[in-house]
Design goal:
This protein has one helix spanning 7-16, and strands at residues 21-23, 29-31, 42-49, 57-65, 76-81, 85-88, 92-94, 103-109, 122-123, 127-128, 135-138, 154-157, 173-176, 190-193. The protein is mostly beta strands.
Length: 200
Amino acid sequence: MAQPASALQRRQAAAQRQPCSAVFGGGATLTVTFNAANVAPVASAVSISGTAEYGQLLTGNYTYNDADGDLQGTSTFRWLRNGTTVVGTNQTYTAVGADVGQTLTFEVTPVAASGISPGTAVQSSAVAIGKAPLTVTASSHTLTYGDPIPTVTPSYATFVSGDNAAGIDTPPTCTTTYTTTSVAGSSQTTTCSGGSDNNH
C-alpha cells in the first residue's frame, strides 16, 4: 500500500510545478527559456517543366523552406511512371519510349543540412507523355514526258534520342499524281501518308 507523502515531499512536488524562474537577493530574477523543438524542412510548389514528349528533358521544380532557417542539404528525388515504377533519381529526367502513353510524376524529399531532417516527400501532379512529332517529306522528281513513274521515297526530320529511319515501325506510303500520259509541262505532286511508330 502506498505511503502518504511527507511534508518535505509535498513541498518538493509543489516546487517542481512552479515556473522555471528564481529570485535572488537584491531582487534579481533568473528566467530560463526553452526554445521550441527544431522542425523538419518542407517542400512546396512541386511541379514538372519541359515538353511532355518522348526524348524531351523534363525538370522537377520545388520550393524549399525550413522554419528554423536550416539551409538545404542534399534533397532526394524520384521520377515515378504511373505513380509506382521509379525511373529516375535526379532532378531532371529524359522521357524514354516506355514512358509514351504513360504518366510521370516528380517527387522530392526535402533534406536540411542541419537540424531535424528529412521532411515529408511531396509529389507533383502527373503529366502524360506523348509521342515526339516527326516531319516526313516526299521526294521530288524532274521528269520528261513519257518517263516511267518514279519511286517516291520519304525523308525524315526531327528525330530525337538517336532514332533514325531504320527504326520506323511502319514507314509511310508515298505516291505521285504523275502518270506516263501526264501532259508535258503540267505540275504533278508527290505525297507520303500513313505510317506509324511507337515513339513518333
